[in-house]
TrEMBL record:
Keyword flag Metal-binding: yes
Matching InterPro entries: PCO/ADO, RmlC-like_jellyroll, RmlC_Cupin_sf
Name the record gives this protein: Cysteine dioxygenase
MF (Gene Ontology): metal ion binding; oxidoreductase activity, acting on single donors with incorporation of molecular oxygen, incorporation of two atoms of oxygen
Gene3D superfamilies xrefs: Jelly Rolls
Species annotation: Triparma laevis f. inornata
Keywords: Iron, Metal-binding, Oxidoreductase
Record has Oxidoreductase as a keyword: yes
Cited PANTHER family: 2-AMINOETHANETHIOL DIOXYGENASE, CYSTEINE DIOXYGENASE
Length: 194
């Protein structure tokens, strides 16, 4: 069942404004993605930054960064009953967005939207709009993600393989690496509040 806090337009507006501001700050702070390069330069790197708890005014959310090396991608995946705000911090990013759930969405009358994202552009993923998306890059990129509510058991991303409804478990994704460490004072899991 979707979280009722997702329907609050004031919460959504507050989060959108905060994400835009945070993305602009990170764009100047992390001028070079070299600071968070994975141990293997061919690996996508996921870096958790902050996890909140739900309050009266804001739903629970998570903030993370993705580094995607040149000529790599984050495969087609969904975010069940979640809202995701993504912002390109540096590099180039080709985005494919699809409404609905599962690979069958390609068969719907709504065609996938494919476009090049701009730096600091706010990309929005909602439970029923743009819920499936894929990120590809030619030169490499750094992406900020804010996800609400956060991931819990039973609310995980599903990755979709080419040509069907085949699930690709996250653990088996090639070139996908979860790294911990410190990035310009943002220790993983400790947040960026200064």
């Amino acid at each position: 069942m979707p979280d009722s806090s997702l329907d609050s337009s004031s919460s959504t507006s507050t989060i959108e404004s905060s994400v835009k501001s945070y993305a602009q700050h990170l764009t100047s702070t992390l001028a070079s993605p070299a600071r968070i390069l994975p141990s293997s330069p061919d690996s996508v790197r996921y870096i958790p930054i902050y996890e909140s708890v739900e309050t009266e005014t804001l739903p629970e959310y998570e903030i993370c960064l993705f580094y995607v090396p040149p000529k790599k991608s984050i495969p087609l995946h969904d975010h069940p009953d979640m809202i995701v705000y993504s912002s390109l911090l540096s590099g180039d990013l080709c985005v494919t967005q699809i409404d609905g759930r599962g690979w069958f969405s390609f068969l719907s009358p709504h065609k996938p939207r494919v476009f090049d994202a701009k730096v600091n552009e706010l990309l929005k993923t909602f439970p029923k709009r743009n819920n499936l998306h894929q990120f590809e890059t030619e030169k490499g990129c750094l992406i900020l993600d804010v996800v609400t509510p956060g991931y819990i058991e039973g609310r995980e991303c599903t990755y979709w393989g080419e040509g069907g409804t085949v699930e690709v478990p996250e653990e088996s994704l090639e070139d996908f690496e979860v790294k911990t460490g410190e990035i310009d004072g943002f220790a993983d899991g400790e947040g960026g509040n200064e």
